[in-house]
Amino acid sequence: MALPLRSSIFPSSHGLTLFALVTAILTLLSATPSARAFTAADAYNLAFNFNYNFYNKSGGCYLGKTGGSFDQHDFWENAEMIEMAVDVADRTGYASDEMVVSNLVAGFDRIYGSDWTCDIAGPAQPPSSP
């Protein structure tokens, strides 16, 4: 004999649907593998492999692709690459990573110049006439 759906456990068909949904979600959550935490070794390996593939020590820059060329016209991208290298050097404290930063800054200055003064008030205004 089959049990009726409307019992004290499932007072209505909506209760049965909710119960089935909750059971399905809990089953999926318990079957899903947990993600591995990102480690310091992962961060170092990422930075090491990025430098290995894109850093051009003699040019003091990062290349656009392995064996590719440097795009000196992309000022902000190149500035962001320096920022990334600074973060790596801060994280590791390795002299080799600090040398990468030094080389990148020297290459950046060679291409864009080293005068970084900024007039935040805007362009110079002509003197007013008396």
Task: Provide a descriptive summary of the structure in words.
The protein is mainly alpha-helical and 130 residues long. The protein contains 4 helices and 2 strands, in the order H-H-E-E-H-H. The chain has helices at 13-31, 40-54, 75-92, 95-112; strands at residues 55-56, 61-62. It has a two-stranded antiparallel ribbon. Helix 3 runs antiparallel to helix 4 (95-112). It is elongated. It starts with 12 loop residues before the first helix and ends in an 18-residue tail after the last helix.
**Approximate shape:** elongated
Which stretches are low in confidence, meaning pLDDT under 50 for 5 or more residues running?
3-10
Structural class: mainly alpha
Largest sheet, described in full? 2 strands, antiparallel
The percentage helix is: 40-55%
Order of helices and strands: HHEEHH
Work out the number of β strands: 2
Strand order of the largest sheet: 1-2
Distance between the termini: 108 Å
**Beta content:** under 5%
Q: What's the tally of helices?
A: 4
Q: What is the averaged pLDDT score?
A: 74
Radius of gyration: 30 Å
